[in-house]
Fold:
Amino acid sequence: MRITVDKQTKKFYLAFAANERNAKQGRWVSVVGHEINVGKHRFSATVFDPDEIVISEVTSGIRVMNIPITQEIRGMIETKENVLTYLKHVGETSLTRIIEKHDFDKAVTDGKRKSYNMLGEMPPIEAFNMEGAE
Structure:
């Protein structure tokens, strides 16, 4: 599978459903990050929490995995170029394994249906220019 990481930052939307502890209605939450393409599949990589990278499937907004940002990882992602290299490594290892191990196409279809039924249509993904970002 071909793995690429888009150096352009984008605004993505994650699907957040209401739960028993949080009586608020579910919603699309905007986040900024990079897109990882693994074969025909698209993922967003965002830092939603300062201590973790959240990897989500782009078309459904469903979370695929969390990567805790350890001191070791923090040292590996000090520059934008290093971030892109690290995310490519995540695509080559973890995401490829997830796609191959599961019926990922079905999971995406089911995830889209659930997200759209609960939250309505996802807002469009758009380019996002961060000041000082190249």
